[in-house]
Each structure stands twice: as structure tokens, then as C-alpha cells.
Amino acid sequence: MGGRWPGLPPLPPLPLLLPLLLPLLLSGSGSGSGSWEASGEVPEGPDGLFAAGVAAYARRDWASVVLYMERALRAQAALRALRLRCRGACAARHPWPPPDPPPDAPGTPEPPPALRDLRFFGPVLGRAACLRRCLGPSAKQLQPLAEQLDLEFQKRSPYNYLQVAYFKINKLSRAVAAAYTFFVGNPEHVEMRQNLDYYRTMAGVEESDFKDLEAKPHMHEFRLGVRFYSEEQPEEAIPHLEAALREYFVADEECRTLCEGPYDYEGYNYLDYNADLLQAITDHYIQVLNCKQNCVIELASHPSREKPFEDFLPSHFNYLQFAYYNTGNYTQAIECAKTYLLFFPNDEVMQQNLAYYTAVLGEEQAGPIEPRESARAYRERSLMEKELLFFTYDAFGIPFVDPDTWTPEEVIPKRLQEKRKVERETAERISQEIGNLMKEIETLVEEKTKESVDVSMLVREGGPLLYDGIEVAMNSKSLNGSQRVVMDGVISAEECRELQRLTNAAATAGDGYRGRTSPHTPSETFYGVTVFKALKLGQEGRVPMQSARLYYNVTEKVRRVMESYFRLDTSLYFSYSHLVCRTAIEEAQAERTDSSHPVHVDNCILNAEALVCVKEPPAYTFRDYSAILYLNGDFDGGNFYFTELDAKTVTAEVQPQCGRAVGFSSGEENPHGVKAVTRGQRCAIALWFTLDPRHSERDRVQADDLVKMLFGPDAEEVDLSREAAGQGQPAPPEPLAGPRAGDKDEL
Predict the structure, then answer these.
(1) Catalytic pick from 682, 700, 722, 740?
(2) In sequence order, what are the residues at sequence separation of 6 or more whose Cβ sits closer than 8 angstroms to the Cβ of residue 296?
(3) What CATH homologous superfamily does 471-716 map to?
(4) Which of the listed CATH numbers 3.40.1180.10, 2.60.120.260, 1.25.40.10, 3.40.50.2300 matches domain 46-97+133-209?
(5) In sequence order, what are the beta bridge partners of 673?
(6) Which range is least confidently modeled, 113-117, 152-156, 674-678?
(7) Cα–Cα distance, 677 to 605 (Å, whole number)
(8) What is the C-alpha to C-alpha distance for residues 137 and 34, in angstroms, rounded to an integer?
(9) Other residues' Cβ atoms within 10 Å of the Cβ of residue 669
(10) Where is the composition biased (Pro residues) (predicted)?
(11) Predicted confidence band at 3 (pLDDT cuts at 50, 70, 90)?
(12) Is the peptide bond before 618 cis (omega within 30 degrees of 0)?
């Protein structure tokens, strides 16, 4: 194992962290060290143990790193478990008093007002005393970790240290598990990705070693269930989705319980805070309620995703209703559909599904079926909390951001509704003004940047093609231009056929052109599908998932080849991707003189008469490279061609065929067009790339997220699902629906 092992966490950052940790080391203990040693429950605090582990890492004392970091993780888990156990036990032992009976209830005298207060605060004091006894003499030390240390645990930093230490002491399986656990929580960490790739090449490392030691049970089960669902295995999906629901409610109760901690003064100095009794109670209680509402976000979050799953809990019932339908269990399908409608009563698709299930099962059997009580109770409690939070927002100005989209409008006070409407309109106006200003600035910056980039483009090409079977058929010299290439063998004949079948099965007339089926010529029709839409259709079982996944992988393959061949120093990002077929309209070909797509330039507005190309909106000025991958050649016409700036002088022409790709820079050096397709159907994948990540295609980001969700972080290695389900079934859930693309150029 010669050479530097990749990913060793560097020592220079350690001095930045050590000043925060040294006081803990010098004191000889972390939080809670004394009484925990006596009780045996939590031997030492996680902060002190983590500090000791960091110091051991600085000394390269690998055995001590393992000892302290593992104990820090166990101590953190033990503290959490202790809080949960004590708060749960004390709540059960000292319940809140039952509500007072109505004044007109027979035989029950109304208690005096003073007794009402005492009856309420009696259990409060009892519960507080119970907690003190349960937590022990060191209850005061059970405070949250310092912000910096808490962040280290949230970032799973102990596993970063552990993976190095385990590697150094030759415990590979544990090193792999620690590395993978850290990577799941930090998916953008380049060095850890390299480490994992390195581990996969080592003898003795098994695939089962790559496991997330911090996986949340409810999220793990949910992702498994969705994966089986997407692979059209409803019988396998159901137990995982049901388990996910059970684990979700457990995790929700735990999260809510942990919210009942000390008051966060949020910028106040403790000594300056002088609220009276009722205000202090209000401040603390509303802070707790806010925390409990935010459990929705915490439970719907996964480290591999930028944003939480939207409508996470209701989506379980959405998946389940359709999975139960596919297994013929209409009783459970109706129960889950009705449960989903608790949250979204006006959802037309679910209403149609419920009507269908009811018609099959019969009204007599379907009518008595009720929504699940656990979901009903959850919704009722959540709405009561929201009412209180919106009231305090309206009355005291204490902010509340509702994490749910299903909250009925009537829960929000009317005055607050108007206020939020005005604030939203103002924010949108300001955002639009800032956006317009930023676009102007970006355009100026891009123009300056491109002046230097365009010069380097003239000579930087001819890099490796990365994949076996790909050959350069024509380069810039043979194409009579600059930054041009034609490659053959990019995909196989079978892959071409499969992608053509996908187009005909999935494409929507005019998709990508706002419904216009002949955006460039009235003599042809256009049908297209984006990557994200294809994956969504695969998820819904309307096209083969393996075909949608092939589409996704092929576009990534072309991106990598373009990046390598043109020897780019920075990455290419997808600006737009479109699998499109253009078909000749037979009766419209007589005396035809137009092109399938007139000559144009991809990132500027071509003025052929003046021999200039103006780089300003509405042109896609951020496009830097373009590519088109052909899927067939069995049609007449449709050749791709380059011209001079006059749009008339043809400098090169390319005849499409399966597996052939044309790549070129998107600037004024490469005007191009497509000759008329006079017979048959011409299919291709059109791709545009940008060097600026700010202009990454949103559709592609959603596609990446969907692939990660369906197939896991190592999505490239996951096998694909089987053929689509039958027709005429109720619509499946769409928890990740995204916006349609706007008008786009085509090659």
C-alpha cells in the first residue's frame, strides 16, 4: 500500500478546533462525568470524549482515537436515551389533570379559580421533581452540547476520525462502515468518495461493509419501500412502508419529547431577560411547540437530499393505497386513501381512486372503513398546535413557519392571512427586482469571462474518450472549424432501439415546446421527453424503468466524454437535455424548401446579414457546449450541418446514424442547422452544457435526487426495474412532481 492513502483528514484544521476542546480536557471530564461513573449509565460526557479523541488524532494515537470516539458516540446516544426514558416515565407518572367538566354538568360543582391553577401546577411540579430524581445529581449538566460540538456530531465528524483510525489499525470492515456513514451524511465530500472507491479495490472488503451506522429506521424502511414500489413489487413494498409508518410515529414522539428542554434565550443575555410569569411561560411553551412542529422537517430529511421530502407522512399513505390496490387488497387501499384525504381532502386523483376502490368492493363494505386512527390523532394534535402558534404569531409577533402544505387556511387568523399575503407579494416583487439586477450583472461577468475562455477553446481538444468502442470519426480539422467533433460507437444498436422505444412510449407531443408539436417547421411533428419526466414515468410504472435509467446514464456518459475530449479544466453541467423525435408529415413534403431547424447559434442571436451574433437574452448565453446523440438513420434527409456566420456557406455536414454523436462549442464559431426530414422519423438526444453551476438545469437536479432516492447513493451500480404495469389503473402517487420545461432549441 505504497503512496499516500487518499482522504486522510488533514492535521492543519485541528488547532482551530482544539481551543474549544482543551478546557474540557484540562478539566478532566466532559459533561456529566462524576455522577454517571457512579450510576454506570453514562460513564462520561460526549463532549469530553470527543475532545479526547481529537487530541489523540493529533498525536496519531490511533487506538485512543477509536476508544474515545466510539465512547463519545455511545455517550451521546446514552444521554439521548436517558432524556427520553426520564421524560416519558415522569409524564406517565404525573399526567396533566383532566379538563374541568362543563358548568351545567349535573352533580359536579365547579372548582374555584384558585384551585384550577393549583390543580394544573401540581403535576407540573411533580413532573419536574420526577425528572430531577430520574436524571440524578448531574441533571444540571445534561444541557445541550456547545453549538460547535453539537454541529460536529450532526455532521457525523466522529466517523471521519474513526475511518482513518480503523484503517491505521487494519480493521477494514469497521473503517469502511465508518467512512460510508460519514459519506451518507456528507455526500459532497470528495475525499471520502475517493476513500470509498479505494476501499472497494481492497481485498477482504465486502459489499455488506458499506452500511450507514446512523440510519434512521423510519427513513431506511421508507426508502426500501419506495424502491420496491418503483420496481413494481407491491407485495415487497407494503411491509417496508408499513414499518416506516410505525417507526415514523415512534421517531415523532421521541423528537417531540426531546423538544422539552431548557429555554433558548436566542440572543438575550440571561440576566437581561425579565419576562413576568405568564410571558415567560408563553415564551418557553411556544418555543417548545415550534420545535415539535419542526419535527416534521427533521423526520423528512435525509443527508443525501438538499431538501426534506415534501408531505412526507401523507406520502406513505399515497404509496400504500396504490400498493394495496395492486395486491388486490381493496379494504386496505380504501383505508389508506381515506387517510391520505384527511390531509388533502380536495385531491382529485385520490378521490377518483377512492371511488374506483369503493365501486369494486361495494359501498356496503367500503362505507364503514375509517381512516387510520394514528393519522387522525396526529393531524388533530398538529392542527391544535398550529392554531396556538399562529395565534401567538398574530398576537405577540413570535414567528412561525408552517412546515406542512396541508394546513387548512381556516386555521390561520384572517388578519395574519392578509399580512402574509402582503409580505409574500412584497417579497416576490423584491426578489424579481433583485433577480433582474443579478441577471444583468451575470451577463456582464459572463461576457468578460467568455472572452478569455473562447480563446483557449481554439486549441484544447483531442483528449481521451474514456469508454471502449468510441471512436473519433471527424475532428475540427476535417469538419472545417474549431471545437467540433463527430464520434461513433457511443451507444450500441440495442441501446438505440431501447431509447427509441422509450421515446415512442413516453414522449408527449410538443414536450419542451409548451405543447407546440411543430416548433420549427409545419412539415414535421416533434415529440420529446426530458430525463426527469422519463424517470417519473418509470417510477409510476408507465414506461420500463430500465429504459428511463438508460436515458439518464447515456446523458451522463456523453457529458463525461465531452468534458474529457475538449480537455476542460472545469466540470460541465447540464443546461438542458431532451430525447426528441421529429417525424415527417407525409402530405406536407411536396415542394418543401424549408429546413427541419434553421441555422442558429446556441448561445447568441445570429444576425446572418450583418455577420454577427449578439450574446444577450433571450439567447441562452450561459450555454458553453452542445451535443447530439443519434438513435437511428433509417429516414430521408435530416442531416446536421455547420455553416459560416452567413448561415449559407456550409462548412461540414454529418449524416445521422445509431450511436453517432456530434459535439461542439456553443458559441458563434459554430452556427448549425438541420436539413428537412422528408420521410420517416429522426430520433436523437439533444444536450446542452454550461461551465457555470449557477445555470445547472433544475430538471437534472430533480432527476439526480430521484435516482438517489430510488437506487441509493451508489446509484450507478443499482440494477433497474422491470416492465411497466398494465393500463387503466388508478394513478400512482407523485410525491416528487416538478415543473415543466419551457421552450428550448433543438439540434
Answers:
(1) 682
(2) 308, 312, 313, 403, 404
(3) q2cbj1_9rhob like domain (2.60.120.620)
(4) 1.25.40.10
(5) 641
(6) 113-117
(7) 24
(8) 9
(9) 19
(10) 95-113
(11) very low
(12) yes
